[in-house]
Write a structure and sequence with these properties.
alpha/beta, seven-stranded mixed sheet
Length: about 350
């Protein structure tokens, strides 16, 4: 039965429970990620019933083109947001790095869960086991379709060659193992860990080798902005440090007007109530780059703790029950660092990168 826009179902014992439908992509990793969010939600709200609705997105269907060439910002999100808009699902689980920094009107991110390891990982072809990027032979081919990874790694390891590789995790590992095309591929450590494939990680890339993508390693739950009760229900899933780090990262990217088609990288950490953000922009070959670090206080002010304005959306994120002042500081940090890099010429580097990528 339905009451307003909410769905309820009657259990076998006659009890009525609220039904929450969770939208997700069909890939194995997306399903694992969504199941983990559903489990946490069920643990914290045992009285609700959850139903998972899986669907394919444009990004899942176009497998022969590098993401940066397609130029569509919502490759992995559009179909899911349409289902949310049409009330086919109530919430959608995403990898945060797939979500544009500006969401379509009427949608917001209600929860950002505790981040998995955000770094990139090297997965070697079985014949190169025991090696690192540094010790791979000259002209070894490394598979990645990320401009961000390629730009940083070309700069750091000039003896290697970088080529596009597309497909979900399973497909990319298969391409690596069953052919001789690649000596190694670069993947997000978080995805490999969630799939239970940690044993394939040969090397975790530290920030000095390769900084990560905005939001990498974090899961986000997107909702209709007007569904206040769902915002409230999901607020228990938020991890404060992850939320503040990701707000700063997303504000940095949005202010730079970056996206899939330009190499922008970040690194954040929280130490003693200080949020540190390192951000960088690169030319496609990594030869030209700007990088800097700034910090801000995210100490909770008692006054602001419970006075979070639920209407405030910061870079697509509406998080209640986390100090509004801390969220504002995190967002300002991202904007300030972007402005610093822009004052040093970041716009020019990104414009050239975009034009060269379009011409490839």
């Amino acid at each position: 039965m339905e009451e307003g826009q909410f769905k309820f179902i009657t259990n076998g014992d006659g009890r009525v429970s609220r039904l929450i439908r969770i939208g997700t992509r069909k890939s194995q990793l997306a399903r694992i990620q969504t199941d983990s969010v559903a489990e946490k939600l069920k643990e914290l709200h045992p009285d609700i019933v959850l139903e998972i609705v899986a669907m394919s997105t444009i990004g899942d269907k176009i497998l022969d083109t590098a993401l940066s060439k397609i130029g569509e910002k919502s490759l992995f999100t559009k179909e899911l947001e349409t289902a949310l808009e049409k009330n086919i699902v109530d919430v959608v689980v995403h990898s945060l790095k797939d979500l544009p920094t500006t969401l379509p009107p009427g949608f917001t991110i209600a929860a950002v869960l505790k981040r998995e390891n955000p770094h990139d990982a090297v997965v070697l072809h079985p014949k190169h086991v025991g090696k690192t990027l540094e010790t791979l032979p000259e002209k070894s081919v490394i598979g990645t379709s990320s401009l961000r990874r390629a730009a940083q790694l070309k700069r750091r390891f000039p003896h290697l060659v970088f080529k596009d590789i597309r497909g979900n995790l399973n497909t990319r590992l298969k391409k690596l193992d069953e052919k001789e095309d690649f000596a190694a591929i670069i993947l997000a450590a978080a995805g490999l860990k969630r799939m239970g494939w940690e044993n394939r990680i040969s090397q975790i890339l530290e920030p000095e080798d390769c900084m990560y993508a905005v939001g990498q390693g974090a899961l986000a739950v997107e909702v209709r902005a007007k569904d206040r009760d769902i915002l409230e229900m999901l607020s228990v899933l938020n991890d404060t440090d992850t939320v503040l780090r990701c707000i700063a990262e997303r504000a940095f990217l949005r202010h730079l007007e970056g996206g899939c088609s330009v190499p922008v990288a970040v690194h954040t950490e929280v130490i003693d109530s200080q949020l540190y953000l390192t951000g960088a922009v690169y030319s496609l070959d990594g030869s030209d780059f700007l990088k800097d670090t700034m910090q801000t206080s995210i100490a909770t002010t008692h006054k602001g703790q419970e006075e979070v304005d639920e209407q405030v959306q910061r870079v697509g994120v509406t998080v209640i029950k986390i100090c509004g002042g801390s969220q504002d500081n995190a967002e300002r940090l991202g904007v300030d660092l972007a402005n610093l890099l822009l004052s040093k010429g970041a716009k020019e580097i990104l414009t050239v990168a975009r034009q060269l990528n379009d011409a490839r």
